[in-house]
Amino acid sequence: MRVRNTLSVTGALAGVAAMAYLGTGIAQAGNPELPTGNYQVCGNVLNSSSAGVSGVTVSGELYDVGNNLVPGAIALTTTNADGGYCLQGTSGMVSTVTGGGYVKLHAAGGSFGTWETSGIHESDFFNHIYIKLPSITQSANKFNGTV
Fold first, then answer.
1. Measuring CA to CA, which residue among 144, 111, 123 is closest to residue 42?
2. Contact 110/146 with Cβ under 8 angstroms?
3. Which of 47, 39, 60 is nearest to 119 (CA)?
4. How many other C-beta atoms are found inside a 10 Å radius of the C-beta of residue 46?
5. CB 3.0 to 4.6 Å from 42: which of 31, 34, 73, 141, for a disulfide?
6. Contacts of 70 (CB under 8 A, 6+ apart)
7. Angle at Cα 47 formed by Cα 43 and Cα 50, nearest 5°?
8. Which has the closest alpha carbon to 29: 44, 14, 9?
9. pTM of the complete model beyond 0.90
10. pLDDT tens for each residue of 107-120
11. Dihedral over Cα of 39, 109, 118, 46: its sign
12. Is 115 exposed, middle or buried (0-12, 13-18, 19+ CB in 10 A)?
């Protein structure tokens, strides 16, 4: 019985060690970009191998409930070394989205899928809202695109 328990523990430790070793190559693939303040929409731009792609131009546009582009509500940034980005919105972004508006994302040479075609609506924003205890920010993340 003692030999069997020792082998089980040894096998479990070997499995954990193997997963930790193999996981090191994956950990760099799209570390989620986190908001640093309010009124931000963040995510990562990934390639077909799920690795972050740096230097991609990402833009976001805010539309009101009537499908009109909100003046002055276009944000532009470039992805960082891990493919992460955060677009800084205005203080009216959240109320516009919760009032029936939406945000559309675009990646130069890539796609944001649904976030690009129909946009980020209220339910999407709340499903992705960034919570940093003890508070909830007025930002959302994990809106990922591909190139």
1. 144
2. yes
3. 60
4. 21
5. 141
6. 62, 63, 64, 92, 96, 101
7. 75
8. 44
9. no
10. 999 999 999 999 99
11. negative
12. buried
Contacts of 72 (CB under 8 A, 6+ apart): 90
Cα–Cα distance for residue pair 135/114, rounded to 1 Å = 29
Contact between residue 89 and residue 60 where contact means Cβ atoms under 8 Å apart: yes
pLDDT tens-digit map of 77-115: 999 999 999 999 988 999 999 999 999 999 999 999 999
Place of tokens 């193997």: 18
Residue whose tokens read 């029936």 = 100
